[in-house]
Design brief:
It contains 16 helices and 20 strands. It is of the alpha/beta class. The protein has two domains: about 260 residues, 3-Layer(aba) Sandwich (Aldehyde Dehydrogenase, Chain A, domain 1), CATH 3.40.605.10; about 180 residues, Aldehyde Dehydrogenase, Chain A, domain 2 (3-Layer(aba) Sandwich). The chain has a seven-stranded mixed sheet, sandwiched between helices. Strands 9-8-7-10-11-19 form a six-stranded mixed sheet, with helices on both faces. A three-stranded antiparallel sheet has the order 5-6-20. The radius of gyration is 24 Å and the shape is globular. The mean pLDDT is about 95. The protein binds nicotinamide-adenine-dinucleotide (NAD). The site of nicotinamide-adenine-dinucleotide has 29 residues, from helix 8 and helix 9.
Length: about 500
């Protein structure tokens, strides 16, 4: 089959650079479906200069007009929803249902950004001092960059650029080289929506493109989502070069199961949290902390649920429960982590390692796996696995569970399953995580709330999404004004 085109988008032109690139796979079949060009300093410079040139006119375009472009873009994303979801499934391996869910989350970010005229309202006070008025206005920054991971090919870019451009900035997106095709399609739809040339640009590549963005003097702000070591690198390098940076990193999320939890609902939620999107989610509930008698109640059901999950290709009409992981190398890393856990004394009680998918023998598959009796010192307990693997750890009481969860270097999500309000309240206040669920397994926030990772899950001050994203993509100016002789007299006098 012919490879899908994977052009850069610079100054309103779709350009296929003559660069050797990296293969883009369909993880369901193991086939190469595209080649992602490995852009570097030259491509980044061209895109940043185009974005800089487009900035003055876009900045001065009234917010209502910028919003209109986003309303049209929103409409087009809805109109091409199935095509976008198919692209996500094809290059990432998500099931159609998962792709739809993720693109919906992205769509909500466009919808939120459509409210930009009111989101940009500033504070205002007349007669702050005698005859002096004071106004806060929120101004765009200039050229902003977005660097995104493989696991949400459409949603994560949509976390960034709709709000950035709504605020009056211009944007350069560097999507993951593993899943560049959804970003290309989003760019085509934004172009069709009437976004002026140079306002939005796409440059493909890996480390060289990222480093060029982080050091380019015209880039004012960088939004990053990816693994923790790269998030730290992006934050350190970007801030050292004078840029505002928000960098989301990896995670290890704990789900506490109390002995009084509703078993059926808890198992259903645990299975979705651990195995949804084949575990390739920064909000995956990858470790169950079973308190007291909870383990004996939950574990047999959980094993049954894991074994019932049908794995298969997501690029055809009949859909499996779970798709492949992103690459063969990633699958092998997950296998190694599970084997390491076993060597260190953990017990694999549902084993998806040998899964066979007859209709797609070259796909990158792993079955749902449950590892019991995981201990805190084990590598599998500390490292982000990012695959369909659920660790189970047993704790005597809620205190011990919170203490263990709080030892994590990360701080993205945590959840508790219980029917006891006091336990839930204590957990939500004491657990060291920025997004907490009470009987909600994946407490990932939606567009209007910030995505509040803590510690090694986030570097920066202002998070992605919600009002914090408006603050991130703007800077405030406070204007104090006095007009001599401007006494309005008694306005109430008839
Ligand atoms: P990754 O860190 O490998 O890649 C992310 C981006 O960084 C890509 O665009 C990639 O090209 C670039 N990159 C990779 N290596 C680089 C290097 N050495 N120097 C500069 N840039 C480099 O992440 P991934 O594997 O694509 O995504 C999975 C990770 O993302 C997981 O750790 C997951 O938890 C995390 N993630 C976090 C969130 C969140 O909001 N906290 C959301 C989604 C994914």
């Amino acid at each position: 089959m012919a490879l899908a085109p994977c052009p850069n988008y610079i100054a309103g032109e779709w350009l296929t650079p003559r660069l050797s690139g990296t293969p883009v796979y369909n993880p369901s079949t193991g086939e190469v479906i595209a080649e992602c060009p490995a852009g570097g300093a030259a491509e980044v410079a061209a895109a940043v200069e185009a974005a800089q040139a487009a900035f003055p006119a876009w900045r001065d375009t009234p917010a209502v007009e910028r919003a209109r472009v986003l309303f049209r873009f929103r409409h087009l994303v809805e109109q091409h929803f199935d095509r976008l979801c198919q692209t996500v499934s094809r290059e990432h391996g998500k099931t159609h249902a998962e792709a739809r869910g993720s693109v919906f989350r992205g769509l909500e970010n466009i919808e939120y950004a459509c409210g930009i005229p009111t989101l940009l309202f500033g504070d205002s006070l007349r007669n702050l001092a005698r005859g002096v008025d004071c106004d806060t206005i929120h101004l765009p920054l200039g050229v902003c960059a977005g660097i995104t991971p493989f696991n949400f090919p459409a949603m994560v870019p949509l976390w960034m650029f709709p709000m950035a451009i709504a605020c009056g900035n211009t944007f350069v997106l560097k999507p993951s080289e593993k899943v560049p095709l959804s970003a290309v399609l989003l760019g085509q739809l934004l172009e069709e929506a009437g976004c002026p040339r140079g306002v939005f640009n796409v440059v493909h590549g890996g480390r060289a493109a990222v480093d060029a963005l982080l050091t380019h003097p015209l880039v004012r702000a960088v939004s990053f989502v990816g693994s923790t070591p790269i998030a730290k690198h992006v934050w350190e390098t970007g801030t050292r070069h004078g840029k505002r940076v928000q960098a989301n990193g990896g995670a290890k999320n704990y789900i506490v199961v109390m002995p009084d939890a509703d078993i059926g609902k808890t198992v259903e939620n645990l299975a979705t949290a651990a195995f949804g999107c084949a575990g390739e989610r920064c909000m995956a509930g990858s470790t169950a902390l079973a308190v007291g008698a909870a383990a004996d109640r939950v574990l047999p059901e959980l094993v049954r649920a894991a074994r019932a999950i049908r794995v298969g290709p997501t690029d055809r009409a009949a859909q499996p429960d779970m798709g492949p992981v992103i690459t063969a190398a990633h699958r092998d890393r997950v296998l190694q982590l599970v084997a390491g856990g076993e060597q260190q004394g953990a017990k694999v009680v549902a084993d998806g390692r040998g899964v066979k998918v007859a209709e797609a023998p070259h796909g990158f598959y792993l079955g749902a796996t449950v590892v019991d009796q995981v201990q805190p010192g084990m590598t599998i307990a500390r490292e982000e696995v990012f695959g369909p693997v659920l660790n189970v750890m047993r704790l005597a009481n809620l205190d011990a569970a919170i203490e263990l969860a709080n030892q994590s270097a990360y701080g993205n999500g945590a959840a508790i399953f219980t029917q006891n309000g006091a336990a839930a309240r204590e957990f939500t206040l004491r657990v060291k995580a920025g997004m907490v669920g009470v009987n909600v397994g994946v407490p990932a926030t939606m567009a209007m709330f910030p995505f509040t990772g803590w510690d090694e899950s986030f570097y920066g001050d202002l998070h992605i999404q919600g009002k914090e994203s408006v603050q991130f993509y703007t800077r405030p100016k406070v204007v104090s004004s006095r007009w001599f002789g401007g006494d309005v007299g008694d306005v109430w006098k008839k």
